[in-house]
Design goal:
NAD kinase; six-stranded antiparallel β-sheet; NADP; Tumour Suppressor Smad4; EC 2.7.1.23; 16 strands; Rossmann fold
């Protein structure tokens, strides 16, 4: 018997709550068992909101293998491809297996401090910068090969999915999700007689490791952003960023990537 249990994670605003209520009614009409209490046994997780809701849902499910799909009640909604007006078409497509699973790579950030190490996952990007909007100086290594001593606002490392977000706003290029590569993008790098920093993104193959090593003076005044969530650490030594050994399984209903790019950004 097919698994009819479906998780629903919704934003709390009026439009999201209204859409969630309609969605639950329609799923029940199709003999599904929707739940707003997160279950690891569900066959599908549906998020209702904007891209922020999608990211929060991925974190709430702890990056599980359960496929996830988004209904957009926000503004941009690059992850959330289904509109509230398309609920019937979405359920019909899901009923008839007219969908595909897109496996999106996830970043794993290993944070090393003098006392202990931490591991963080990111769908979109990891950023290392200084606190209080100060300039940060750090060394950047690719697989232990020294690339540069960077000076500027910070460094962003993005997945292909994340390349259309913060990365793009910094002037970084869009990377197609079929290309398993990381974008390493400088944030306001300083180029002067005293400092030399790359001013454009680097696209790194997915089997490489990007190491960010801040100078000692930033050991206790660092700020690490993981999909927008802020983390600070005492006695920070370095951050190693690579693709994790897991993927995000995003359910896609008849989506054209290039049309999505055009409709969202052009």
């Amino acid at each position: 018997m097919a698994n009819k249990l479906i998780n629903i994670i919704s934003n709390s605003n009026f439009e999201s709550r209204k859409t969630t209520k309609r969605l639950i009614q329609k799923l029940k009409q199709h003999n599904y068992n929707p739940t707003t209490t997160l279950s690891p046994r569900a066959a599908l997780t549906i998020t209702v909101g904007g891209d922020g809701a999608f990211i929060k849902a991925v974190n709430r499910t702890k990056f599980s293998d359960t496929p996830i799909v988004g209904i957009n009640t926000g503004h941009l909604g690059f992850f959330q491809e289904i509109s509230p007006e398309q609920l019937d078409a979405f359920i019909d497509a899901y009923d008839n297996n007219h969908y595909r699973i897109e496996r999106l790579p996830i970043l794993g950030a290993e944070v090393y401090t003098n006392q202990k190490n931490f591991f963080l996952y990111a769908v979109n990007e990891v950023v290392l910068k200084a606190q209080n909007s100060k300039v940060i100086h750090m060394n950047i290594f690719i697989d232990r090969n020294h690339l540069e001593k960077f000076s500027g606002d910070g460094i962003l490392v993005a997945t292909p999915a994340g390349s259309t977000g913060y990365n793009m706003s910094l002037g970084g290029g869009i990377v197609h999700p079929g290309v398993e590569a990381m974008s390493v993008t400088p944030m306001a790098g300083i180029s002067s007689h005293s400092y030399r920093s790359l001013r454009s993104s680097l696209v790194i193959p997915g089997n490489h490791v990007v190491s960010l090593v801040p100078e000692r003076r930033y050991a206790n005044s660092n700020l690490i952003l993981v999909d927008g969530r802020e983390h600070t650490y005492n006695q920070l030594k370095r951050v190693n960023i690579r693709f994790a050994d897991r993927h995000l399984n995003r359910l896609v209903i008849d989506s054209n990537y290039w049309e999505n790019i055009k409709s969202k950004f052009l």
